[in-house]
Each structure stands twice: as structure tokens, then as C-alpha cells.
């Protein structure tokens, strides 16, 4: 009953505190910088050593089914194991828990596809398999009462 629910909640809080401490230790030892912006924590963009162009279409993957107390200290090394990350964004709640999804951007579409093949279904913890697929990057600007057939050169005028 109530005692079991209390113990379960207490266990979750202890686990979350331990996970937060692990994240803080990882940030210090790796000197990783995270930036909190608009409900997400961002890492990277671009990496320290980068020779190629800015990543284009199909370079980003969408990651879901992330346990709420899993943070960048586990996710960034995992997704970096495929290849250098241009950027990693973990969506966050005001409570400090993640929202269960993130985005990883690579330098090429081939690396993003490799990440999908290698990490989709990856078991992060028992009974928790990540879902990794291509991200649909939204690059549309909507302006009220503007016909959809408006040409870019007409907008520039």
C-alpha cells in the first residue's frame, strides 16, 4: 500500500540523486560544457576538431524511450561511439528530469544512418531499449495570411 509506494518513490529519488552526482562528476572530469536553452540542454556545435562543412539534411537522429533519470554522461559517450557529434540536445523538464527524448547531430548523413543501425534497440538498462531514427528537421516558417505558393524572392522584396 502506501508504505510500498513511499519506498518506491524514495528509491527513485535516491537513484536520481546518484545519477545527478554521476553527471556532475562526468562533466568535471571530461570538462564538458552544457548549455540550458528553452527546455533543452545542448552540447557541442561544432566539435573542437572539425574539418568538414556544417551538417545538412539527414544528419540528425531522434532518440526516444530514454529513462527519465538518464543524462548526458551516459548518452553522449554512447552516441559519440558511432562518430564525432556536432551537437547533442537533451530535452528537459523544469523539475530537472529529462523528457525522454533527445537529438544527436553528426557531420554526415552516413554517420546518422550508422547511429540508427547500431543504437536503435540498444538496451540502456533492463527493459529499456532506445528508439533511434532519422529526425525530421522542421525548417518551415509560417506567416499568417501568406499564401503557401509565395516564392522566396517575393519574400525578399
Automatic annotation (TrEMBL):
It holds the Pfam family RRM_1. The keyword RNA-binding applies. The keyword Calcium does not apply. InterPro entries: Nucleotide-bd_a/b_plait_sf, RBD_domain_sf, RRM_dom. Keywords: RNA-binding. Residues 59-137 form the RRM domain. This is RRM domain-containing protein. It comes from Xenoophorus captivus.
Amino acid at each position: 500500500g502506501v508504505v510500498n509506494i513511499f519506498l518506491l518513490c524514495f528509491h527513485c529519488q535516491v537513484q536520481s540523486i546518484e545519477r545527478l552526482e554521476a553527471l556532475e562528476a562526468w562533466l568535471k572530469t571530461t570538462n564538458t560544457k552544457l548549455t540550458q536553452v528553452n527546455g533543452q540542454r545542448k552540447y557541442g556545435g561544432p566539435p573542437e576538431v572539425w574539418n568538414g562543412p556544417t551538417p545538412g539534411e539527414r544528419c540528425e537522429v531522434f532518440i526516444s524511450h530514454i529513462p527519465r533519470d538518464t543524462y548526458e554522461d551516459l548518452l553522449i559517450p554512447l552516441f559519440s561511439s558511432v562518430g564525432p557529434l556536432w551537437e547533442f540536445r537533451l530535452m528537459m523538464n523544469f523539475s530537472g528530469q529529462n523528457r525522454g527524448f533527445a537529438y544527436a547531430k553528426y557531420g554526415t548523413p552516413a554517420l546518422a544512418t550508422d547511429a540508427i543501425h547500431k543504437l536503435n534497440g540498444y538496451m540502456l538498462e533492463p527493459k529499456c531499449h532506445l528508439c533511434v531514427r532519422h529526425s525530421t528537421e522542421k525548417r518551415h516558417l509560417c506567416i499568417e495570411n501568406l499564401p503557401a505558393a509565395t516564392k522566396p524572392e517575393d519574400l525578399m522584396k
